[in-house]
Amino acid sequence: MIGRDSTDHRELFSHAIKAMKNFDEAVNYSPDDIEIRLLRANHSLRLPEAFFCRTATAITDLEYLVERYQKDRGIFSIETYWQVLYDLGRAYERLGMEKECAAAWETLLSLNPDAKYRELIRM
């Protein structure tokens, strides 16, 4: 994350690629680590899809996190679950997967989340 404040585009890309490799190695080493999956999903979602093509990776991690939470609600807070569902919908939307996006956001809205999610989804 050191490269995000850089003004040198080569440095930005270099740091982003290094972080991608590190996150991928961490998930390969410890695929059931919730924190690593959350971090990689968040990092992948923040990268421009046109350059890095990481939205599918984010979807993989977010779907994994949803599945794990549904089996064990103690792995993270309900607020984190809301954010995971919202991010999953955004990732689907980014890739043009409208049905999947709608399903993720319908699940989120059915849980009566904070008003901020209702506003974000309406935008």
TrEMBL record:
Supply the name of the protein: Tetratricopeptide repeat protein
Q: Which UniProt keywords apply?
A: Repeat, TPR repeat
Spell out the SUPFAM superfamilies in the cross-references.
TPR-like (SSF48452)
Q: Which Pfam family, any one of them, does this sequence belong to?
A: TPR_2
Please, which domain of life does this record's source organism belong to?
A: Bacteria
Q: What is the lineage of its organism?
A: Bacteria, Bacillati, Bacillota, Clostridia, Eubacteriales
Query: Is Repeat tagged as a keyword?
Result: yes
InterPro entries in alphabetical order: TPR-like_helical_dom_sf, TPR_2
